[in-house]
Amino acid sequence: MTDPVLAVDAVSVRFGAVRALSGVGLAVAPGERVALLGHNGAGKSTLFKSVLGFVTPDAGTIAVAGGAPGSLVARRAVSYLPEAVAFPKSLTGRELLAHFARLKGEDPRAAMPLLERVGIAAAADRRVGTYSKGMRQRLGLAQALIGRPGLLLLDEPTSGLDPVSRRDFYSVIADVAAAGTAVLLSSHSLSEVESKTDRIVILSAGRVVAEGTLAELTRRAGLPIVVRVEAEAADVDRLHRHLGGTRENGTRVVLACSGDDKLPLLARIAAVPDLVADVEIVLPGLDDVYDHFSRRPGGPS
Predict the structure, then answer these.
(1) How far apart are CA 85 and CA 69, in angstroms?
(2) pLDDT of 2 above 90
(3) Ramachandran region, residue 87 (left: φ > 0; alpha: ψ -120 to 50; beta: rest)
(4) Which residues lie closer than 8 Å to 247 by C-beta, 6 or more apart?
(5) Are strands 59-64 and 33-38 parallel, antiparallel or unpaired?
(6) Could you read off the pLDDT of 23-39 as tens digits, one per residue?
(7) Using CA atoms, how far apart are residues 221 and 85, in angstroms rounded to an integer?
(8) Exposed, middle or buried by CB within 10 Å (0-12, 13-18, 19+), for 33?
């Protein structure tokens, strides 16, 4: 089994009387994209700062590429993109990327193609002070990718990006992960990360309350699948009597079932094809899963 690039084991952090993290554990393997979700104050930023070596845990351990946070091996392995990047306004994009490449011990010329990769090559010789927020965020991603990091920490990375830029951003992240980089991504845009990550970790009040794939968490939560059955004209009464459920808009029947009951329900629907005009199956999404786990006892109010 491949060793994780990031291993967090039973980490607790306290600031005075406030316990920011309590027994947090998670791991991110090479090539894996993990979404870190949680309400404001859940502990996401504290965890990121602990991984980066800016905060020392009161208990537990963190290993980045086998090294302690802040060690030379960890600093060489990790790159970080904050929600709001701040760069010297007087430098051009090209000059800024060359500066960060030198800091990382990389050839500045090898870093230049990253500007094209994130879609701002045309602005390479413009001063960063003239960049929009979205362009600065793209520049931040370019500098985070210098040197092919082993671990990429992304904190609300698509803040300020338009929908097309967000799509392009996640395309780059997918390529980076496919090349072996471990990605830990914090976001409040649940629908955005739903199909863009491999696994989900939900923090609530400093504790991990759920971890797994979306399918695993959906099953664990026991969330219902909603099936909307559109009736043929004038057949909604007969359809309702056959299937049960509730009437909606006078033309359809709505039913809820568990994952185990989905196929038997569809078989019942298929048994009356003359009554059915259409069928819509609505699976629980990440919003539903997050709402379920974050509102359990001990979660936010």
Answers:
(1) 22
(2) no
(3) beta
(4) 236, 240, 253, 254
(5) unpaired
(6) 999 999 999 999 999 99
(7) 37
(8) buried
* Cβ–Cβ < 8 Å for 33, 185: yes
Residue 292 lies inside a defined structural domain of this protein:
no
How many Å apart are CA 118 and CA 121, to the nearest integer? 8
Angle formed by the axes of helices 214-221 and 286-294, nearest 10°: 50
Are 188 and 157 in contact by the 8 Å Cβ rule? The answer is no
Cα–Cα–Cα angle for 223, 225, 227, nearest 5°?
A: 155
Both tokens of 80, joined, read 């970080």
User: Does residue 163 register a pLDDT over 90?
Assistant: no
What DSSP string runs through 33-72?
A: EEEEEE-TTSSHHHHHHHHHTSS--SEEEEEETTB-TTSH
Residue 223 contacts residue 285 (beta carbons within 8 Å): no
The answer to whether 90 and 131 are in contact (CB under 8 A) is no
- Report if residue 114 sits inside a domain: yes
| 121-152 pLDDT tens trace | 999 999 999 998 889 999 999 999 998 899 99
Position 164, amino acid: V
Confidence (pLDDT) at 66: 94
Amino acid identity of 243? Answer: L
Q: Rounded to whole angstroms, how far apart are CA atoms 155 and 82?
A: 5
Task: Report yes or no: 210 and 200 within 8 Å, Cβ to Cβ.
Answer: yes
Provide the angle, in degrees to the nearest 10, between the axes of the packed helices 163-178 and 133-144.
Answer: 0
Of all helices (H) and strands (E), which one includes residue 79? strand 78-81
DSSP 232: P
Q: Please give the structure tokens belonging to residue 272.
A: 């009356």
- 27 shares its domain with 145: yes
The domain that holds 82 is classified in CATH as 3.40.50.300
Of the candidates 16, 76, 24, the one whose C-alpha atom is nearest the C-alpha of residue 48 is: 24
Domains in the chain, number: 2
